[in-house]
Design the sequence.
């Protein structure tokens, strides 16, 4: 069994990340120009929209993993690890994006700088939850 506080943190993180990743996916596909205006004060050029939509593929994959984790983690705790791995991969894409973006608006800095830290916190939460569930299962079995 997972400690009540940790269970709440898991649920908060999973729901927040699911909503965020779904909204990012939608924004990238429905209104890519809005992405570039809000985060870069620029219009997309060249392959910018294609690369943004490629990232959107990752965001919808994260949403899928997080959604399945919300649905299955109590019976199959390994889904917590799956979410931790997905968030781990995003650590590097978030950092790379902030470092390589030629321009960022104030909103861009506000919305794009925290995700690597939040992803790291999410990874720790998911792995702690998995460890607690595994240790309680081992004691029961």
Sequence:
């Amino acid at each position: 069994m997972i400690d009540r506080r940790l269970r709440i943190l898991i649920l908060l993180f999973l729901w927040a990340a699911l909503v965020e990743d779904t909204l990012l996916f939608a924004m990238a596909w429905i209104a890519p120009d809005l992405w570039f205006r809000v985060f870069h004060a620029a219009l997309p050029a060249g392959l910018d929209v294609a690369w943004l939509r490629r990232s959107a593929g990752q965001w919808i994959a994260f949403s899928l993993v997080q959604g399945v984790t919300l649905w299955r983690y109590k019976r199959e705790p390994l889904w917590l690890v799956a979410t931790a791995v997905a968030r781990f991969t995003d650590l590097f894409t978030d950092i790379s994006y902030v470092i390589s973006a030629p321009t960022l608006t104030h909103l861009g800095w506000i919305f794009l700088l925290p995700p690597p830290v939040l992803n790291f916190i999410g990874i720790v939460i998911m792995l702690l939850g998995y460890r607690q569930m595994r240790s309680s299962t081992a004691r029961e079995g």
Residues 4-140 form one domain. The chain has a mean pLDDT of 92. The chain is about 85% helix and 0% strand.
